Amino acid sequence: VQLQASGGGLVQAGGSLRLSCAASGRPFRSLDMGWFRQTPGKEREFVATIADNGRRTSHADSAKGRFTISRDNAKATVYLQMNSLKPEDTAVYYCSARRASAGEWDYWGQGTLVTVSS
Asked: Are 75 and 4 in contact (CB under 8 A)?
């Protein structure tokens, strides 16, 4: 599975960004999709996930009420809408995929940098 993330950039605190991740190489409908993020010196952390059929989502406490994960199976793309951004959201955001209901996140994109200025 190849994952291509895009949509990162520089935004002021309180602003919004939408990240996109296009998948190829395996039927998209067979994949759970997720977003994770990482800052220098810290471990990669979970942000949000969405099940293969889109009916089940999960968001980290830090993302609840501000971020929304969604997917378009026809376009083989997953999105992360980020609103009310804070400086602490600054990170490299990674798109990930796994076979539906599998344990490990097997596939990773290259990451897209989100910088939130105060």
From this structure: no
Q: How far apart are CA 90 and CA 113, in angstroms?
A: 8
12/97 Cα distance (integer angstroms): 29
Residues 6+ apart with CB under 8 A from 62: 47, 88
Residue 57's nearest CA partner among 33, 25, 26, 88 is: 33
The pair phi, psi for residue 56, each rounded to 5°, is -130, 125
3 touches 95 (CB < 8 A):
yes
Q: What is the pLDDT of residues 35-83, one digit of tens each?
A: 999 999 999 999 999 999 999 999 999 999 999 999 999 999 999 999 9
* Half-sphere exposure at residue 27, Cβ-oriented, CA atoms within 13 angstroms: 5
Q: Are strands 107-108 and 91-99 parallel, antiparallel or unpaired?
A: antiparallel
* Token duo for residue 54: 């889109």
- The overall longest dimension of the chain from CA atoms, in Å, is 41
Q: Cβ–Cβ contacts within 10 Å for residue 76, how many?
A: 18
